[in-house]
Amino acid sequence: MSQTYLPTLKQLQYLVSLREHGHFGRAAEACFVTQSTLSAGIRELETLIGIVLVERTRRVVRFTPLGDQIVAKARRVLREAEELSDLARAAGRPLSGEMRMSVIPTIAPFMLPKILPRLRRDWPDLKLFLREEPSAAACEGLQHGRTDCVLLALPYACGDVEMAPLFDDALYVAGLAGEIGHSTGSITADAIDEGRLLLLEDGHCLKDHALAACNRPELRAEATMLGTSLHTMVQMVDNGLGVTMLPRMAIDAGILDGTDVEARPLEADNPARRIALVWRKASPREKDFRLLAELLGQSDPNGARNHRAR
After folding, report:
1. Euclidean distance between the first and final Cα of the chain, in Å?
2. Cα–Cα distance measured from residue 219 to residue 227, given in angstroms and rounded to the nearest whole number
3. Could you tell me if 81 and 104 lie in one domain?
4. Per-residue pLDDT of the chain (310 residues; tens, 9 = 90+)
5. 292 and 219, same structural domain?
6. Judgement on whether residues 188 and 167 belong to the same structural domain of the protein
7. What dihedral angle (degrees, nearest 10) is formed by the CA atoms of 208, 213, 214, 216?
8. 73, 99, 219, 271: which one has the fewest Cβ atoms less than 10 Å from its Cβ?
């Protein structure tokens, strides 16, 4: 009976990393190995199965059609292997070991500084690796096993996931006093000048949440979408370039400090986004994720201080 040689998990990791980065050097860096080690591992894999998976040229790394199929299968194998470790971890102490969490940019700088010190203090055995990225990339990473859970804002289609809603994060209209008026009341969606509205560029789900809350189709066509971050948006508003939408958590975190910008609640049918933690269905670490969600939910901005939000 002939001996069967199977691919190693390390070889599959090298292959998946090369597919994700499209460059041998960056893929090797992501795997914490040298480029020659990664290249040799992939060549060994190709020799083992007797098929070329990657076409190598000086400028381009191109996967063959079969190579793409192997990558898809390799991702599933690696995810299953990780879940073997998760099973053992879940049977031990709660919130211990490594956990990779992706957080979207309109949440990370405002929510994490409040919760991370407490996590480090109360759960010292948890090694939380954070990755800040837009919703689409975060959800893709979750499905491919690159990340274990995602902290994001709903509504957003993140695939076949389990979720734990944390709290609702109200939306505010932010502008100079002369632009949004001196009243202390809320601002209706109809009162927003579409020609003066500044929003985050495509790829940020807060833009879609703001437009959906206003329920004014013309805003999508007329609004200027160019901000790369909420801090950039605030600086543009402070310079008199228009008005924007901000989530309450950003205001409570002091994003308006040092500016002349004021914020007033948006009056609309759904004037908020819902913050949630999501993870893959049937994950053996579900109890950990639900416990983490409970802790994250304690940073609900409804009980926090309010900086110049009228």
Report:
1. 78
2. 16
3. no
4. 444 568 888 999 899 899 888 889 889 998 889 999 999 999 999 888 888 899 887 778 889 898 888 998 888 888 777 777 666 665 567 788 889 999 999 999 999 998 999 999 998 988 899 999 999 999 999 988 889 999 999 999 998 899 999 999 999 999 998 777 666 688 888 888 888 888 888 777 888 888 888 777 676 666 776 778 999 999 999 999 999 999 999 999 999 999 999 999 998 888 999 999 999 988 888 989 999 999 999 877 555 444 444 4
5. yes
6. yes
7. 60
8. 73
Does residue 4 sit within a domain?
no
Triad 241, 247, 250: Cα angle to 5° = 85
Tokens in use for 231? Answer: 């801090």
CATH classification of the domain holding 53: 1.10.10.10
Q: Which domain holds residue 195?
A: 98-310
Token reading at 82: 């990780």
How far is CA 181 from each of CA 172, 173, 177, 191, rounded to the nearest angstrom?
Answer: 14, 11, 5, 11
Inside any domain, residue 51: yes
Model pTM score:
0.73
